Amino acid sequence: MENEKLYLEIVENMREGAYFANGDKKIIFWNNAAENISGYTKEDMIGKHCQDTPLQHINCEGNKICVEGCPLHLALMDGESRKHDVFLKHVEGHRVAVSVSTFPVRENGEIVGAVEIFTPSSLVIYDDDLITQLASSATNDHLTGIPNRRMVETFLDLRLKEMALYKYKVCVILLDIDHFRDFNNTYGHDAGDVVLKTVSSSITKMTRNTDLFGRWGGEEFLGIHTIKSDSDTLLLGEKIRASVEGTQIEYEGAMLSVTVSIGITVAKVGDTIESVVKRADDLMYKSKQNGRNCVTIDAT
To answer: Is 219 a catalytic residue?
Structure first.
């Protein structure tokens, strides 16, 4: 017990920032140096899950590492230590460049959490707007502003890996705008761009912060949602379908409208990006065959 107090005091007062997160990625320790480097107090951080903290780590390419591959999450998954250079968001809004070392903590051979140690790697303070623009250009679709295919694939890969660990259900939603080619031929590509922007905006407003909806390619969009039960998929799909159908699109004085065909599948343990998207794609084409403007889900 005395040794534990001594070790805790040493970690509490060392110059490097340090925090410990348990197996659920909930922060339960945040030392003094972590407060000094980030500006966030113990009260701000302890009890929060890593992905819900205001630190919003971004790597040197401008990608959000909570989606691209969180070192702490990976340490929990495979038990390997890692080192990274990232930017954390300071409480005052600017970015601080830090070198991060992450390693798992074991008890009786089982991984029970992970420690992250970080220290400033530069005296330069980075403007948050600049870093945000860099991140946006790397992960967002240039036309609609929503996540691009690369971002969607990365997020889906992370969710598939987390399913077994955290025991939650994930569904994949693939939707295609009906008769989009005919729409472009009738009204022109500028009108088509307005449709893509409006549809993406309409669905994004319905997407929770813990989920993701992005542009898969052309007039196809893909969503990744956590659900409580398989039966939630039809209700979710119908909400999206009805939202798009009910959206009025103003273009050069005319009020236009479109519909979407939707396929939804529930991810299974062992699924890959390719396998789960293929099922959603097959279901989406069944919606096309059934007259469009409808939702098709996995058979139960």
So the answer is: yes
Choose the weakest-confidence range: 163-167, 187-191, 268-272: 163-167
Residues 61 and 35 in one domain: yes
Look up the domain containing 238 and give its range. Answer: 140-297
pLDDT in tens, 202-250: 999 888 877 899 999 999 999 999 998 998 999 999 999 999 999 888 8
- Taking the CB of residue 300, how many other CB atoms lie within 10 A of it? 8
Q: How far is CA 113 from CA 103, 106, 120, 230, in A?
A: 9, 7, 24, 30
Q: How far apart are CA 179 and CA 259, in angstroms?
A: 9
Instruction: For residues 95-119, give the mean pLDDT.
Output: 90
pTM listed for this prediction: 0.64
pLDDT reading at 148 higher than 70: yes
Q: How many domains does the chain divide into?
A: 2
> Which residue of the set 43, 80, 219, 245 is catalytic?
219
Domain match, 74 and 193 both: no
Domain CATH code at residue 39 = 3.30.450.20
Backbone angles phi, psi at 221, to 5 degrees: -130, 150
Beta partners for 44?
A: none
- Is 214 in contact with 152 (CB distance < 8 Å)? yes
Say which CATH number the domain at 284 has. 3.30.70.270
Domain termination site, one of 87, 102, 135: 135
Fill in the amino acid letter for 66. C
Q: Please say which residue of 135, 156, 182 terminates a domain.
A: 135
* Nearest Cα to Cα of residue 99 among 75, 135, 71, 76: 71
Extract the tokens encoding 198: 């409006």
